[in-house]
Amino acid sequence: MTLVPTLLTPNHIPQVSDRRLTFPDGSVADDSYNKAVSWCSVFSIGFTGIAYIDRRQDQPVSEFITEGLCGHRQVMPAARQLAEALTVAVDKLTGWPDRRLSVVLAGFGTEPGGRPEPMQLRISNFEIGSQRFPVHQRQFVVDQLSATPGSKFVYTTAGAELRLDEWRQLRRRLDRLVREGAWNQLIRLMVMTQRRVARRDGTVGQDAMVISTPRDNAAPGTLMTDADSLDIGYESTMCTYIPAGGLSPTRFGPHYVCGDAALADFETTVDEDGESVSVRFLRVPGSST
Question: What is the fold, at CATH topology level, of the domain defined by 3-250?
């Protein structure tokens, strides 16, 4: 099961997800499955659990989430509607022994006339409140987590769990790096922790997709990446693909949704002939599908 770590701080929110799919017996089915979505570059979304939302396995959960957010402008109504849609869809998967799924939205929410504050919404049928159920429950529930005023950071995980010793070691380093504002070191630490878990849990992948969302976005609505570096900039929402083998000429990106537009399967390749970019449209503004 994917590990989705999210770090809420007053100025930046990085979120990490792996790209591994496994069969019920734990063997690897695919190591290049996208589990990340950017919503208008304001909220990042990662998920863990089942990978498809239909019995024929034609619709990936990532696309169900992306299309489900089309047209939405407010996070809480969107999350509640997504929870209702997931409840209906997953209920139809009778016969599937494991239907657990958690979706984590993280970004900066703004009260009318207020300052953007870090917040997280978790939509889940097995991680509900402070409880973690061993099997899926009938309803998907929306839980909200906001950083306490004055707190330096809040670190959460969904899906695969950290051991107590892993959490203690992580906590000490997080505290120092957040104080220093060392964002790229923080991201590397989150990815390193993912890979440490992956070494003992084969359902967690080694490759990482990272989305970093700043409170004050210099380029609203724009999701940026650097094809020549694994680093993240601080001023705008950025994504980076960090494969286990280091910088790759082929880079992947998360799905993206904003307004009535939805895109998937972002891929860029850099070679001696230059840079090529491909993307697939799930929804085009003005279209019904």
Answer: Glutamine Phosphoribosylpyrophosphate, subunit 1, domain 1 (3.60.20)
